[in-house]
Amino acid sequence: MLKGFREFILRGNVIDLAVAVVIGAAFTAVVTSIVTNLFNPLISAFFKASSLDKAMIVHLNGAEIKFGAVLGAIINFLIVAVVVYFVFVFPINKLKERMDRLRKKGVVEPDAPVTELDLLSEIRDLLQAQQAPPSASAGRHADPLP
What we know:
About 70% of the residues lie in helices and about 5% in strands.
């Protein structure tokens, strides 16, 4: 059971997902700051409120319905979605289209699948390069695996 869990955690996709979550959280903090400190005051000026959260409040039987807060969240989401699309999704899709066109023309060969042996060989070579003195490792080639 633990072996299966370890294999699951060490898969590249899980690690990529963890990195994406951390970067996404940091990115969200930046966008939230932009929305809170730039867009909200501009929009609030139109509603004559100190912040968007305090604009467009409806009182109904003692309850407050905060349409301004919802509008702020929607603006925040739209800004994040637009930036993610134009910074990440759009360029990656264009790159994939270009690579597909080049593959169809025969300019670029299809990617060969990377095996576990290839990855382990790379790791071994990197570790050897880090442990050897700079002069001793110059011009050396890695020994093939037995």
